[in-house]
Amino acid sequence: MVVRRKNSEGQALVLVLLALAVVLTIVLFILSRSITDISVSSSQSQSVSAFSAAEAGVEQALVIGSATGASTSVGVGGASYTTNVTNVASGATSFVFPLELNSGDNMTLWLKSQDSSSSFTGPNIKICWGSAGTSSSVDTTPAIEVVLFYETTDNDPATTKIYRAVVDPNSSRISSNSFTVAGGACNISGQSFAFSTTISGLTTLGTPQFAFVRMFYNTGTAQPIAFDSTDSTHTFPSQGIMVDSTGLAGQSTRRVSVFQSWPEIPDLFQFPIYSSTGITK
Questions:
Q1: Count of other CB atoms within 10 angstroms of residue 107
Q2: What domain count does the chain have?
């Protein structure tokens, strides 16, 4: 009788310990999941706060204004942001445009600074476009149009004239669009491009002001574009500002970059139906 009672008590103790182990395991699992969920929720909250702070930094730089070349750090509640504003291409002999262009998109290449304190005075501008490896014989091969505004008499808008160039790497389209055949691959600022062309003889035209550069045919696939002065002497004026803003909240960091170009004139003005002195047939 005594031996059987001890075995029964031992079995009961084992069952109790097993039950406690199971309960403890479940409790630990629940605690682990809860800690994980709280950590993920906290991380997501910090990520949203960091991104919002980075956006606030961009808005502060664009709306209120920040000096180029300066770095600003500001606290926003439990988060903070640091912004850095830089001029794009100012004083550079070559640059890659910060945005890629789709078919029909255009950008403005500034050849005279906004305050007229500096101008591009080089005789040539090399233009490179299209990602490296882009085919030159498909329907989506990108072509470009360059519409250059220049003054035959400096600082006299009444003497403004237009020089136009259209270039297409796809030779099979030349017979229908009458474009000029583009050159081959090139490299600008360490980036490779599939196609190129050079606008020559700028100094014989007059004083270049700016140029519209439009891309064609590459529907659905945005393509990069870049510019080079072809020498180490002539530099470009600023093409706009780049705002880099980094938001920080807890352990989360988020970065937002925004390019703001200078105000542009309407596209309609690239067509010679407008004249400050009237129209002569």
A1: 20
A2: 1
Does residue 213 form part of some domain?
Answer: yes
Higher pLDDT, 149 or 13: 149
Distance CA 221, CA 2 (A): 88
Contact residues for 67 (Cβ-Cβ < 8 A; gap 6+): 85
Run of H or E including 41 = helix 2-59
The residues facing 240 across adjacent strands are 261
**pTM greater than the 0.70 cutoff:** yes
CA distance 108 to 86: 18
Asked if 254 contacts 247 with a C-beta cutoff of 8 angstroms, the reply is: yes
Report yes or no: 163 and 213 within 8 Å, Cβ to Cβ: no
Please say whether the beta carbons of 213 and 106 come within 8 A.
Answer: yes
CATH of the domain at 169: 2.60.120
Q: Kindly state the helix (H) or strand (E) to which residue 10 belongs, with its residue range.
A: helix 2-59
Spatial distance between the Cα atoms of 96 and 47, rounded to a whole number of angstroms: 31
Strands (E), the chain: 71-76, 79-87, 94-96, 106-110, 125-131, 143-151, 160-168, 180-181, 186-188, 191-199, 207-216, 225-228, 240-249, 252-261
Q: What is the pLDDT of residues 128-147, one digit of tens each?
A: 999 999 999 999 999 999 99
pLDDT tens digit string along 18-58? 777 777 777 777 777 766 655 556 677 788 888 888 998 88
Residue 58 lies in a domain: no
